[in-house]
Amino acid sequence: MNPARKIVFINQATGYLTIDIVNAFAAYFDEVVLITGSVRVQDTVLDHRIRTEKIVLYDRGNNFKKLISWIVASFQIFFLLKFRYNSYDKFFFTVPPTAYLMAPWFRGKYSILVFDLYPDALKANGFRENGLLCRLWSRRNKRVFNHAHMIYTLSDAMKTGINRYSADRDIRVIPNWSAFSRLVPIPKESNIILKRDGLQGKFVIQYSGNIGVTHNVETLLELAETLRDETEIIFQIIGRGERSNEIARRIKNSGLTNCLMLPFRDDSELYESLCEADIAVIILDDKTPDISIPSKIYNIMSAGLPIMAIASHDSGLAELVTRHQLGKVFEKNDISGMRKFIHELMSNEKQRSLYSSNSLEASGIYTSQNAGLYLSSYIEKTIDQV
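The structure assignment produced for this chain is given below.
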């Protein structure tokens, strides 16, 4: 008789991407466990066969609160893996980013899905590359990555970053996907949230997401300053994070009446909120171009929106926008280029429609079927090792 196939997934903040991946593995494994602080359902629910183990919630507050929640979660994860799931296959997501570093301490094979690459991501928070923490983390990465069963990541740029720690490893690149791939864009004339926000007849430039240290939202404020006399243009900033109050204060002190600051949307309103926009803005810190790809780009594509990406031109985000011709990419100091792009799309409906149709077409490539690629490659590698 073959031994039971058992696997445990570790992700402190479970969203639709994790749910789709874990559900795919439930079709093959005899026992599937998810260690998590929260499960956020947007589209698909967690398969009833999956058992959950609760740990501390991921704190999205300031860096100190995040760090405390990571440390507490890592201790909880250690004890669960050591005393309950030591013999299981282990599948680490990089939330908390400290958990996968413990992987070699346990029995059974382990795999890692790198959503955000550390310690590289720490540079955006002021940590020095040659500082003690980054050097120790880099050294640990080399050991952990070299002994992993599978390493997954989201883009070729992120794969290049991982290869700095593990040059000879086979790293599988599997793009993310949208939570709303089954939905159809909502026309502005039917958009209830647009009417509620009082934005009928406005050209809406929308940033929706986290507002933290690594999100240069002030670039949008600089852009809004240059367009403050064009009353038909509205900058809509929707989000949460440690710098939300600071951004709101800057808007008020600068008298930017063309900026509308709103709290993070409920999941039930998120898709319709995206459909308010004429241009969607994505911001990626230019100090760390290859450490992540914002998953929101796939939801934006599913809403059929042109994209204005504020990011380094050598980032994975820039490559995605350029490859599918979803919009344009700008360095954060290219305010005149962004202003020209806005005016171009305001006056050229044909060009705006082209970017919109490209977004919708590309969203058909990035669907939840990608979750099955994790399972198929995992099984393939397991068979090869037998």
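Interim note for the steering committee: The first strand starts at residue 6 and ends at 10. The longest helix spans residues 63-83.
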